[in-house]
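Saturday, quiet lab. Running sequence design on the structure tokens for the scaffold JK sent over.
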């Protein structure tokens, strides 16, 4: 499915996903009453990546191959 979407858009989505907080890090203390919306937004981006055939857990390593971490999540 990624071949029907502009590769620059897919790359931008991957980059943005790497800068998003991890869902496990989102809590009421840090994000206030909007913490559930933040978690929902993170889940939505993960679902879009999965729908494009992209494993969200592998995006960070793909975007940042020189770093030690092997996963965004």
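Result came back. Writing it out in full:
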């Amino acid at each position: 499915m990624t071949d029907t979407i502009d590769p620059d858009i897919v790359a931008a989505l991957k980059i943005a996903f790497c800068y998003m907080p991890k869902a496990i890090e989102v809590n009421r203390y840090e994000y206030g009453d909007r913490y559930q919306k933040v978690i929902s937004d993170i889940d939505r981006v993960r679902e879009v990546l999965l729908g494009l055939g992209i494993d969200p857990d592998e995006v960070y390593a793909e975007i940042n191959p020189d770093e030690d971490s092997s996963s965004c999540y």
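Notes for JK: The radius of gyration is 13 Å. The chain is about 55% helix and 0% strand. Ask whether to fix the surface positions before the next round.
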